[in-house]
Amino acid sequence: MTPKKITIIVGVVILVGALSWSIYKGPLWKKGSGDTVPSPIVNDSSKGEAKIVSPGVNIDYGYTTKASSTPVKGVKPRVDAPSLNRQVVVPASFSSADTSLAKEHIGKLIDAIKKSPENGALWADLGMKRKGIEDYTGAREAYAYALKLMPNNAVVAENLGVIYSDYLKDYPKAEQYFRLSITLEPLVGYRYLRLFELYRYGLKDTGKAKAILEEGLKAIPGDPSLKVLLETMD
Description:
Blueprint: H1 3-20, E1 41-44, E2 49-54, E3 59-66, H2 96-115, H3 120-132, H4 136-149, H5 154-167, H6 171-184, H7 189-202, H8 206-219, H9 224-232
Antiparallel strand pairs: 1-2, 2-3
Helix pairs in contact: 1-7, 2-3, 3-4, 4-5, 5-6, 6-7, 7-8, 8-9
């Protein structure tokens, strides 16, 4: 099987997996290629749960997950809060309508963060919006701070890995954050595919590419996408 076909398989599987774990709303610039939508979380200490809501409009999507109080060992970004005065520069290729919408949404997010600076979900959303306007440094800063506030959030760790691998081309950092996302959620198949793609096409390390597929199949026996890709390595 050719590298092009393998890349298509990886991309399709990651997209399908990501869609099953995420909620997408609005124009394309809000999300960006390769993003997994971080889940905005509001803790409910009375139930020991975290509820998924939409920042700004307060829409409850009806999904809850147990809130962990024990941080997972892994990458711990030692970062201060990014400046909220960072300029919003929208690419010239954007339409005037999308440019206005992007600035409006980022402005509202910044206002919300000023009111709730410890809300990691808002910082993660800001990272996604910054990535959407191709401000990859701003996205990295926002995602890193979101992960500092929510050290158990695998989605944020993965998105940070995407920024490092696809845009900043810092492969060692990308590997760290993809690895952290697997540590946090080892039963999500497409997280292994992120590392597979990094090893196969970024680092061009066939040995590591094969090993991560084997690791994924040990965690998720019989996973069809991991199995098919492993067969292409023989």
